[in-house]
Design brief:
It contains 17 helices and six strands. By secondary structure, it is an alpha/beta fold. A six-stranded parallel sheet has the order 3-2-1-4-5-6. α4 packs antiparallel against α5 and α8 runs antiparallel to α9.
Length: 461
């Protein structure tokens, strides 16, 4: 058998193994119990795909490829070990942007060299380049917002029209290139400039409250771009990985949009998530403060306590103190559960990640559908920095922007305690009617400090 044929068989077999490892790893990531091993399996698949690439006939520039690989691996290892769990959303956004940027760079190289000759291949290169560039620049803006480098949403009249014009201009430029009517370097540069600006223009108006949707959306974009470039390079590993990531990201985006009562079309084409305005909604009554000592007694003598974590817990890095508090309650015979809303935090699964870091057992963590019926039997619902996901106007006020959004029924607990730093309306700008209910009391202060005070209060009982 010729040597080239044996090498080709080994490459194709390795890509088949890669696909199996990716799919098996993704399946195990669907459960927090097996997610860690799922990441290792998928990582093994990526390692196989990377190593087998060196078997391709005609491979060269090893002196550039190998150092770049080791440099990238070292940076990723260092940053991954160093980053705090509370900063994980912005790291996800940044790394996702790097994936989109890599796909765009591949497209740029092929288009500048003019090696994407066939109409179909040129079209895929252009499509992957546009999508990857949008994901790259959009993800960088998402990173900036999550990191606090960009503290406001930028909106102006005619913004959607501008986005549409940018998209149309990019499509026209892409069509000219794909048809080889004008594939000059200047036109290719124009294409990528338009796509990068489109990513910026799409993301700048979006507020921090909608980051879970944004991150999952750009994750899907990156996967799609990688799959397209896999066809351009005839690389099965890229096609498989991109397809898996793109489909998973699309499903996750639909889940996030549903959890916020938005259609996918609304997410893609409307000015969603603007949080730069003033608080909206009219709420009667007043917020009633309570001291930590009284809350401690209330929880210590209760039978069931449900914890609802939100972004405030992440900002204060209070997850360890909250779990210490829960352990004290459990030791006293109190039933403790955690209620997680799909869009709580700043990325899909943000609260689950934080609780897992603190060592909270998985069987104490329940999602919205599992836990909602239990709030009516809860003595205390402890809200830690959550806002929209527990706002009852989503059920009652048809004029509210969040009307119809599935929420956690925290207001139905016998007593509701809200740990909050101040009296503001939160990221969404929507006043929370929960804070004004007769059964709600406000425990003002940083979540970590408040949790420490609650620990001492329970110990004193």
């Amino acid at each position: 058998m010729p040597s080239w044929l044996s090498a080709d068989l080994l490459i194709q077999a390795s890509y088949f193994l890669t696909a199996a490892l990716f799919i098996f790893g993704l399946k195990r990531m669907s459960s927090p119990v097996s997610a860690r091993s799922g990441i290792l399996w998928a990582g093994a698949g990526m390692l196989v795909a990377t190593l087998v690439t060196f078997l391709y006939p005609g491979m060269s520039n090893y002196e550039l490829i190998v150092p770049a690989m080791f440099a990238g691996a070292a940076i990723a290892w260092w940053s991954g070990k160093r980053v705090a769990m509370t900063d994980m959303p912005q790291m996800i956004a940044l790394y996702n942007g790097m994936g989109g940027g890599a796909a765009a760079a591949i497209a740029a190289v092929e288009l500048y060299r003019g090696e994407a000759t066939g109409y179909a291949i040129s079209t895929l290169a252009v499509a992957g380049g546009i999508i990857g560039a949008v994901s790259f620049s959009g993800s960088l803006i998402a990173f900036g917002k999550l990191q606090g480098l960009i503290n406001r949403s930028f909106r102006f009249g005619g913004q959607q029209l501008l986005n549409l014009l940018l998209l149309l201009a990019a499509l026209v430029a892409g069509a000219l290139i794909a048809a080889h009517y004008n594939a000059s370097p200047a036109m290719v540069s124009t294409l990528f400039a338009l796509a990068l600006v489109l990513g910026l223009a799409m993301t700048l108006p979006i507020g921090g409250a909608d980051m879970p949707v944004v991150i999952s959306l750009y994750n899907a974009f990156t996967g799609l771009a990688v799959a397209f470039e896999g066809f351009v390079l005839n690389n099965a590993a890229m096609i498989i990985a991109g397809t898996v990531v793109g489909s998973a990201g699309t499903l996750l985006t639909q889940l996030m949009a549903k959890a916020m009562n938005r259609s996918l079309g609304n997410v893609l084409f409307s000015g969603f998530g603007d949080t730069g305005g003033a608080a909206t909604g009219t709420v009667t009554g007043s917020m009633k403060a309570i001291e930590a000592a009284d809350v401690g007694v209330m929880m210590a003598f209760g039978q069931k306590v449900i914890i609802v974590p939100g972004y405030g817990m992440a900002v204060a890095q209070a997850q360890h103190k909250i779990w210490e508090l829960c352990q004290l309650l459990i030791d006293r015979g109190v039933t403790v559960k955690f209620a997680i809303h799909p869009v709580a935090g700043r990325m899909p699964g943000h609260m689950n990640v934080l609780l897992a870091e603190a060592g909270v057992p998985y069987d104490l963590i329940a999602d919205l559908d599992e836990i909602n019926s239990e709030f009516e039997t809860a003595d205390v619902a402890l809200i830690i920095g959550a806002n929209d996901v527990v706002n009852p106007v989503a059920r009652t006020d048809k004029s509210s922007p969040i009307y119809g959004m599935p929420i956690l029924n925290a207001d139905k607990a016998k007593n509701v305690i809200v740990i909050k730093r101040g009296k503001g309306a939160g990221f969404s700008g929507i006043e929370n009617a929960l804070f004004y209910l007769d059964n709600t009391r406000m425990l003002y202060g940083d979540a970590q400090k408040a949790a420490a005070e609650l620990i001492q209060a329970v110990k004193a009982v």
